[in-house]
Amino acid sequence: AFGPWTGFLYSWIGTLVSSVVGFWLGRQFGAGVLRDFAGEGVNRFMRLIGRNGLTASLIVRLVPSAPF
Fold first, then answer.
1. What one-character DSSP code corresponds to residue 26?
2. Chain center to CA of 29
């Protein structure tokens, strides 16, 4: 609709803004709110991610839709 270069630029800017907003929301409200309201299963999962951060990051990066 916008042409290849303008469309690429709009898409790139939208992805960046979405990433920044998601990161900010996660940093502000993520762990504390999740820890307070989640059940034991989610808390166990968060501890597992904390111990195996590299593996968790690798798995999320390999799943194409997970970061978004």
1. I
2. 13
| pLDDT-derived band at 9, boundaries 50, 70, 90 | very high
CB 16 within 8 A of CB 22: no
Place of tokens 């990433």: 19
Q: How many angstroms separate the first and last alpha carbons of the chain?
A: 23
How far apart (Å, rounded) are the C-alpha atoms in residues 12 and 35? 33
Instruction: Confirm if 1 and 7 have CB atoms less than 8 A apart.
Output: yes
Task: Read off the pTM.
Answer: 0.51
Question: Tens digit of pLDDT for each residue in 17-36?
Answer: 999 998 898 888 877 777 77
Separation CA 49–CA 43 (nearest Å): 10
